[in-house]
Amino acid sequence: MSIPNTSAGSHAALSETELEILRLLANGHTTKSIAARLGRSETAINERLRMARRKTGVGSSRELARQLDAQKIWDKNFDLPVHDGFADSPARPHHPGLEWTKGKFAMLIVLPAAAALGLAVAANTAIRPQPAPAEVGATMPTAPSPLVGRWSLDVARVPAEERPQSVLITFQPASGDRWTTRVEITAADGAMLYADSTAGVDGVAVPVGGTMAFIDSVSLRQPEANTLVMTLGKDGVPMSTRVYTVAKDGQSMTETIIWTGADLPKLETTHFARIG
Length: 276
Description:
By secondary structure, the chain is of the alpha+beta class.
């Protein structure tokens, strides 16, 4: 299985502070020694690393540092001020269009297609041609699923420094027990991103079309009519598993995110409301 490299777009999303911390990590420092070197708390350093992982989709901080080091992007001389926007600083600066990855992933979550009920299954999933309907082992419920429709992310619950203008997800049933999904994101700076895919509920990974370079495949399973389990991947490696569940009233949907890799953050939850 190939090892994914972060894209140029992912590099651009990283702040100078995050790049400096990752450079020190690549040079063998620990979070404790980095905190001492930069005059910050270990909690602040870990928060910056968590944000960098979310922006790039890489599940391990050390793996992300290794990838960036291998791509030789440390040419810039960093001159970090004492108060540069760490999590424990009094004022945290906002960089429009860059630090909105939580909103971005919130919708990625929803990318057409998605994944094995367990990370172990997802880890062995490879992109291959979609089997004919007769070969699909799992079937969608005969009754209409409450997932069908158009959903909008509750951006008010996303931290202001990471908040996109909007995230819209549309689920529609397709032939052969498959789902067609479209995700549309409007970033804080007005930039538009979208992703399209059609996948069966058999856990088979399929390509994702669109302009979201941080992922290239999705797979899914549907254990219940109101639930989808999705895995997002890049270069054959799973990045995260996301569980979408529609409430009994059919008007709200939650997303629970589980990150892959050895350096896992806590579970994250986002909220969507039906708009169509």
